[in-house]
Amino acid sequence: MNKVSMTIDGIKLYVPENYTILQAAKEVNINIPTLCFLKNLNEIGCCRMCIVEVKGARALQAACVHPVSEGMEVFTHTPAVMEARKVNLELILSNHNSRCQTCTRSWMDCELQALANKLSVDMVRFEGEQKKLPLDIGTSIVRDPNKCILCRRCVSVCKNIQTVGVIDVVNRGFNTQVASPFGISLSETPCVNCGQCINYCPVGALHEKSDVDKVWEAIHDPSKHVVVQTAPAVRVALGEDFEMNIGTPVTGKMVTALRMLGFDKVFDTDTGADLTIMEEGAELIDRIRGGGKLPLITSCSPGWIKFCEHNYPDMLGHLSSCKSPHQMFGAVLKTYYAERNDIDPKDIVVVSIMPCTAKKFEANRPEMQVDGLADVDIVLTTRELGKMIYDIGIEFPDLGDSDFDNPFGNASGAGAIFGATGGVMEAALRTVSDILTGSSADNFEYEDVRGLEGIKITNVKIGDLNVRAAVAHGLGNARKLMDAIKTGEKFHFVEIMACPGGCVNGGGQPLQLSDVRNWIDVRAERAKGLYKEDRNMYIRKSHNNPTVKRLYKDFLGMAGGSKSHQLLHTHYTPRTNYDD
Ligand code: SF4
Ligand code: SF4
Ligand code: SF4
Questions:
Q1: What's 420-439 look like in SS3?
Q2: For a pocket test of ligand 1, which of 90, 108, 111, 113 has the largest count of ligand atoms closer than 8 A to its C-beta?
Q3: Ligand nearest to C-alpha 144
Q4: Which of 63, 92, 121 is the last residue of a domain?
Q5: Is 431 in the same domain as 350?
Q6: Per the confidence metrics, is the pTM higher than 0.85?
Q7: Is 367 in the same domain as 417?
Q8: What domain range includes position 33?
Q9: Using one digit for the tens of pLDDT, what is the confidence trace for 367-412?
């Protein structure tokens, strides 16, 4: 790549000729403020926060989109630049519903507040008009159009990364809004509840529907036995809500905090993940041996399931019939655990702490019930758990470690890596390989399916069988892979997760500001934490988990047997899109 010579604030530098001014400034440790900008995703220069002076140009230029050139002289904080940025921000604030005290973003980092601080905006000189539009409240997602600053980040992620495209900019002038087609609620659209739009919204215009009050009510009800389970990806992200480094594993502190909150039992969804592998592995072996529908496609990501129901209804027969790990675990808690502990299942409240907003929708699906009882009663996101811990004043970083409760205290490393893209595939291969060969493989780390490439393909030799497998994460990649399968590409086994990077980057995880996301790959940092957990585990294959073995021996019978099918498997529903 050719380089150009330029100056920024008098500092000489040589940068690749395809850089923008914003990238070039970063090279000399100058952080130009941004608001709408997301690297490689939303580079549209619409908020005008990153404006700079370029010698010879007639107007101030947006640094996030303006390319560098040979001999360019840039000034990032002249009086004209500083005043223009302030005016632009004050204009945004003058139309903004600035009720910070009651805003979901006030306890986390609000990028608008942070920018007002950074630019020393301590008064707003303009009298704007504020919108008074109704909230759109779904099962998983809440949209507050009155707080929207029209940065279009959500539009970009929904359309370009997820290829769902159910929100866009409508109307003009003061009436401009981000909305669903025809102004209908998101829940009436093919929105898959993935929450990726929340992850990228800089303000409180998008958030999950909070179920924290329901959890407090259950905890304070002495007639209820309230059990909580936590997904693998939660433990490598929760610490971020308390200013710990991205991806720091906090499993022991999290268990301590959950006990302090008042849950009766604290269980590990990793055990449910081990159970999923037993069932899905049996299903894969059965389909390969019995000539069933291939590829078998994983079913643990509810955002992916809804996407498939809307976009590939003719392919639903390829989906594994396995419920997702927390739903399986919920069904076990309301049957096996209830029986063993002599508790009426109606008095058990199962709370799942998930990195995922789509799991709120999933838990409410009528298919996720056994004998009229929901497997899981309440789903909270990692963020909601962080808020509960914060609300009662627990100093999370200073907590000691505790272990999960028995009888579900053991989980395998395979269960832990479920939270990263490729993790379900790797966990399944570890088990299927041992079962098909009848021996225990020493080399069971499948590096080919790890990492952040959008679609990963591998061929694995198991005995005399060549297994061809593919992994996709993010729904845009899922769409590409599904289209390839539809046009004849052959695989035995496919893993799909709705969120880019997998659950570690789910729509319910702690928010990271664009200043962080633009320069650090949050997905990779959190995944590292999970692979570290796996390496440190004594048991690293699902079928070696003694809790799971006992569960089959005492209660379920065999993997893929009739009791498993009654409790742990489900079915899917073809859904229409607008134009159907
Ligand atoms: S989005 Fe930010 S600035 Fe707006 S009300 Fe919420 S916390 Fe305040
Ligand atoms: S939840 Fe996902 S599918 Fe729905 S609007 Fe947001 S990004 Fe799009
Ligand atoms: S909802 Fe959030 S991300 Fe979407 S345009 Fe509005 S402020 Fe930006």
A1: CCCHHHHHHHHHHHHHHHCC
A2: 113
A3: 3
A4: 92
A5: yes
A6: yes
A7: yes
A8: 3-92
A9: 999 989 999 999 999 999 999 999 999 999 999 999 999 988 889 9
